[in-house]
Amino acid sequence: MATAKRLGIIAGHGTLDAAYPPLILATSAAALDMESAIFFTFYGLEIIKKGKADKLKVAPIANPAMPVPVPNIVGMLPGMTAVATGMMNNWMGKANVAKLSELLDMAVMSGVRLIGCQMTMDVMGIEREELLDEVEIGGAATFLNYVAEDGIALAF
Amino acid sequence: MSATPDQVLDCSGLACPMPILKTKKAIDDMEAGQVLQMISTDAGSTADVAAWTDRTGHALLEASEADGKYVFLIEKKG
To answer: Strand order of the sheet with strand B69-75?
Structure first.
């Protein structure tokens, strides 16, 4: 049997595209018989707010890698965030990519630890009740102690 | 001659990471020695299934591709 290892991921961004890699890697790690945890900090906390995962948006400004490039002067117009988000959701749907809420459910079911960062919750005025019930609250030491034991750490 | 599957899991149309997550779940519910046939249309599955069996210790008996369908036979190890 393979050696059990840990994967610790820091999720620091709250856009739709930035939310996928942490959830894909954490659930896959669990499938590979690794333990995994995601530490949600700053805007990453948006991902674990109740009912928020499927409403995350794509930024049309300062995002030159969009498959259909949007000049910043256009991206700043009202409604462009919704347009960019709609395009991305359309592409994701066509490729049959799982929704973020589905990946969150899979994460919980497969034992991925979801850790909310207390310090940034305080900074941004986020209450415990706004986050999913499965979330535990912790700080930098919680995350480091987790990955210190045979762990890999990634940040997004 | 290939082993007869005890269970078939069709992941056609699903994108990464769902084929692997569903394969893991299916194997967990099976007995050691049983064989799972997993079908996928995700081209990344060839590398991912091999990596998954390498890490979990289950045996990849066969991997084949025809008409955009990737078919894997995986034996559950104890």
So the answer is: B7-11, B35-40, B69-75, B59-66
